[in-house]
Amino acid sequence: MQQRPKTIVNATSKDKTFPRLMILPTIIVLLVMTTYPLIFTVFYSFTDYNYLKGGVFKFIGMQNYDKLLHAKYFQIAVLNTIKFTILAVFFEMVFGILMAIFVKSLNPNFQHVMRVLLLLPYLLPTATVSTAWKMMLSQNYGIVNQLLATFHLPVHNWFMETETAFKMILLIDVWQNIPFVFLLLYACLQTVPNDQYEAALIDGANSLQLFWHITIPNIKEGIALCALLRTIDTFRLFDKVNILTGGGPAGTTSTITQFIYNYGIKSLKFGYGSAGALLMTILVLGLSVVYIKKAIK
Amino acid sequence: MKKGLSVLVCLSLAICLFANGAQEQKATVPAAAGKQKLTLILRGGTYGKVIEKCLPAFEEKNNCEIETLDLSFDDLHSKIALDTVNKEGAYDLCMVDGSWMAEFTENNVLLNLSKAGYSFDDDIIPATLTICKVGDDIYLAPYFGNVTVMLYNKALIKAAGYASKDIKTWADIQKIAQVAKASGKNGYIIRGGSPDNIVSDFLPILLANGGWVVDANNKPTVDTKEFRAALDQYISLYKLGDTMDKDDIVAQIDNGNGALAIGWPGWYVPKANSNGDYVTIPSTLDANGKSVNTSLYGVWCIGVCNNSTHKELSVKLLEYLMDKDVLLGTIPEGGVPCRYSSLKNAEVLKTYPQLETVCSSLEKGVYRPVIAQWNEFTTILGTEMDNIIKGTETMDAGLSNAQKQLVDLMK
Question: Which of A25, A250, A262 sits opposite B14 (nearest CB)?
């Protein structure tokens, strides 16, 4: 007789105790660190809670949400965030895939060295990366402007001009996060069977055909996962914007999190800030719903 | 055996997680036995550094230990505010910007120093005391005499035919900026970055044009002809230069690439052979104009947190830090006391002649509006101004939006 697989659902009561004990710490941590704050965030979003006023607040219904949805700068922040996320994820995926394929094609010893070197930007703290780039792009002593001036090219006030500020934040974020995409896709590339490439080569396929018909189909699950993770992470972009531009100039780099910080957190209006945070969560869920539905199937 | 070991590992992990979460860590290093420990929360940079230099003598005399936290402007405000709701505060003495006074006193953040026995003496510049009191009760002491000044590059103003004593009107500023721009330099640099920086940088020009951001009843007055005239002038100066953050402004003035900018004494300590220096901000638009106070106070005050667990010792520390001789000793470290005995001291002025400018600015400065919503006020106004300056919004639309939002805020 075929044995039923051992799962919690199929197990006897006695057998269920041990697995339950094993997942209990995780559930406790999840409840304390995620569910409890989430419940209170939802609750406060319907109040006029100001932290400095202590426990004194009143229920104001949907006023916070109404104010947010009608706030011109929130709308600008949402558009900026979506635009930034799409561009950042696109460039990170493209360059990440290319880097992964390039490194895989190298001599095995050299692959180890390249893996470490290419991973370095991702390992640095965001504050360090932002400060370093700020110095490099400085109007006064920045190496970038000095190099451009040497070659008689136009110099810019990179973080203070409306035409360049957004592009610089995008460049820095892409530079820092390409290694993450590279690492995940490099791991996926290891699982692609070599005999498929060999068979294709025998049939006369060129590099582009190998890439499109063999590489991409084999790693598409990894690409989807990478894109989802990068989308969620990029949507929450805050530290680079806060350190480098504060949301300016003229709101061109303002993101949802920066808006929440400026109008909710700095003024200690946590009720308003909570409403902003929830709206942002709903937007992120909307962007990732396709993948989540596919994963559940 | 394996099962038992797994259960033990999981239980240990859960205990560790809860143990870490449960303990409130107030101090990184516990005080030695018998010694009280004070925690000071200060503004980073020169402002906090100057206080830190004074502490060892107090620690020795009072057998205590003092730990300091140096923070950015926004972090300092947040941390003081967030700690307020705790019954026992994490901080004892705090550094406070005058613009937070209304918000903090409304919400009981600061100790009433009058009730704790503290009082001012005649040596402190009277105009700097306005922000420190609510009625007759003292809540703060003016520690660092931050007041806006006009930074300038000596060579560039000389090239425009000016000496520092000749810079008397905003027309002079315009002329110097034009000459510097014509020679390929930044004639006038405005401060960019956060909305608060933009508003603070603009306010002296607004004052010179006879305008202000609120009226006597704290109603917003940003869509007025004075405000528009001031903003027009500000934009015309911006076109003769650029917009930068604080570090780049100081570098530009010092390296001769920028002629003029509004700044604060804490940014730049000029010496005899420095390339830059500062003067009082002009108080008239032109030779025929009416003279008004145009120096904006950004005095860093010190106070005691109302939930401090060492109130008596903290007040004693405050008195010590505000002592005439202690403050005089901070000047070589970059300190700018709000005391006549420091700023008019002949020996001090020989080495630091620029302090005469600071003294004169402190005597006739203007405080930012003392309103609890000032933080949000500057966010709204600064954002609209940024759009107008960068040309993404017209002045009519921007100021009208700002006025409407500010009226809603102040309801």
Answer: A25
Q: Which domain holds residue A155?
A: 72-296
The pLDDT tens digits for A170-228 are 999 999 999 999 999 999 999 999 899 999 999 999 989 999 999 999 999 999 999 99
pTM: 0.84
Q: Which domain holds residue B57?
A: 36-146+298-363
Rounded Cα gap, residues B320 and B380, in angstroms: 39
Q: CATH no. for residue B240?
A: 3.40.190.10
Which residue in the set B82, B193, B242 is minimally distant from A248, CB to CB? Answer: B193
Q: Tell me which of B9, B249, B376 to substitute to probe the interface with A (most A C-beta atoms closer than 10 Å).
A: B376
User: How many domains are contained in chain B?
Assistant: 2
Within a domain: A89: yes
pLDDT tens, B267-286?
888 887 899 999 999 999 98
The kind and range of the H/E element at A66 are helix A63-70
Residue B4 lies in a domain: no
Q: Which residues contact B343 (CB under 8 A, 6 or more apart)?
A: B125, B145, B336, B337, B355, B356, B358, B359, B362
Query: Which residues of chain B make contact with A268, given a CB cutoff of 8 A?
Result: 78, 81
Set of chain A residues whose Cβ sits within 8 Å of the Cβ of B275: none
- Is any Cβ of chain B less than 8 angstroms from the Cβ of A56? no
The two structure tokens encoding residue A276: 């902003």
pLDDT score for B1:
66
- CATH number of the domain at A290, please: 1.10.3720.10
